[in-house]
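re: ur question from earlier - yeah i can do the single chain one, its not a big deal. heres the input i used so u can compare w yours
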Amino acid sequence: MAGNGNENKGGEFSFSAAAARDALPRITTEKGGKSDVCHDDTASRVNFQTIDELHNLQKKRSAPTTPQGGGVVMGTSGPTTPVSSETMLQSVSASLASLTRETGPKLIRGDPTSAAKVAHVPQTPTSLPVTDVSDSGLKFTHILHNLSPAELYEQAIKYEKGSFVTSTGALATLSGAKTGRSPKDKRVVKDETTESELWWGKGSPNIEMDEKTFLVNRERAVDYLNSLDKVFVNDQYLNWDPENRIKVRIVSARAYHSLFMHNMCIRPTPEELENFGTPDFTIYNAGKFPCNRYTHYMTSSTSVDINLGRREMVILGTQYAGEMKKGLFGVMHYLMPKRKILSLHSGCNMGKDGDVALFFGLSGTGKTTLSTDHNRYLIGDDEHCWSETGVSNIEGGCYAKCIDLAREKEPDIWNAIKFGTVLENVVFDEHTREVDYTDKSVTENTRAAYPIEYIPNSKIPCVGPHPKNVILLACDAFGVLPPISRLNLAQTMYHFISGYTALVAGTEEGVKEPRATFSACFGAAFIMLHPTKYAAMLAEKMQAQGATGWLVNTGWSGGSYGSGSRIKLAYTRKIIDAIHSGSLLNATYRKTEIFGLEIPNQVEGVPSEILEPMNAWEDKEAYKDTLLKLAGLFRNNFETFTSHKIGDDGKLTQEILAAGPNF
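and the output i got, formated as tokens:
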């Protein structure tokens, strides 16, 4: 998601549109090695052997300089929210209850270092036999509940090695050995309900575990959290639609994790927190403690487990905060469709006249760049719901990539990195605390998490009417897809299920070869149901609201990667502008061969010769061969989904298949 300090609730823009557009980033391609066109946060890059080595990487040495007067002035985020302590403590104690020994732990609100200031709470005699009580059942655990960012800064800097305030006021921290998600260590409980409801098997991100194993890991996580002197508890919301929001509780051991989720989830008002009650879903983040790799279904010391029946998630063996964000996104992919609400991995913005557009695209396609338009309001950049009343952002913040971040390319993200923002795994100057965003010493997957209000043109609350345009972005490094195509419903479903883009492999003996990658629904790692179910819901909503589907290629033209050239960002922006304005609805179209895509004869500001891909290729035979190659890759990928029928007669399934390449 995205955000920047000045809250804009009225819709006025305080800067010129032309200047802002010029400042927006280009879609660039890094050549060679593992960089490629797209970057994936699932890879964990570890360049250190010990914790001390990791901490040494975080700070760069600089030549001594004379200290300058003044300093960084950091704002505050408001007073600590008052909460009914008795009700909150009872609720949290119930969340932390052991399933096999004692009831919930005895809790005190506040930092244990300030225990002398806290009135003594008499111990309540346990009703269980003494032999069933562990040491954790004999002690008090301090609960730090919904702390403010300022308080969390203090906790992190004082108690968590590797936490520093940067020159712009952000909190720099480290996620430990894991600097990305661990999808192979993610597990979902398979029970009588989820066995028939969820997507299992080939292509599915859902790796099964049984209820007993989940409870073993849950007990391990709860025991660890209860053994600590203090734990952090966040009570927050998902989904800006007040009728369909979900109450979530996050119990964690680190201030870094608490501040991260404070930013990424929707922050309750004091009144809402008073009446929060029992959460709909609970995360137990014991990531500093490993799972037992000899436990059934475990393949490493890391395990991220979701139990949809118990509405719980357990994290062991990884401190990467993105596991919490994406774990909850997966939960929303399960809960929302049950309410006939479509959950989407997309960006979303809205014009001044209320026209909403959805942007789908894998990493490197330009989703964030193109959905961030200073002439339009940002509803969100990553996770959304489409209900009977319109669209809503699931999150309350943004999780932006920081590698090679520059003020000129990404001014909004740059300016959002200030007090309250979490900076993960970045490297900074040990004296000035200025961040070097080009430094990959810790990882290439450096990140910033900040509230969406930090983006100046964000729309608060993050809701909007029904979308008019659904834009599917692909970075086609093969260079055979048109820069812009209009899709019918069946084609929209086909390309939505396919979720195509292309990565550019490294150079081997002077030959550069693009590599196709497919991610169902443009977010296969997070979906719970079969992709065709989300596609059917998307088509139904588009048809009901009269929305138009578009396929936009932000990749290559005139040849594949290495021989052709990247389509200019300025041309892509003109195409997106034409979609927003509605002018493309009145254009004349012609169909391409093989894929059967409708391409306009003319788009204002875009050279007509690049609209038809073959015209831009000098070697027409090479174009045809490459086109057939890509069509074959699409067909092979789609074989995973052909056996799943949509509807009672499966007629829609055949329509979707017919919308794919024909050769």
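Residues 1-40, 64-82, 116-131, 505-511 have pLDDT under 50 and may be disordered. not sure if urs matches, ping me
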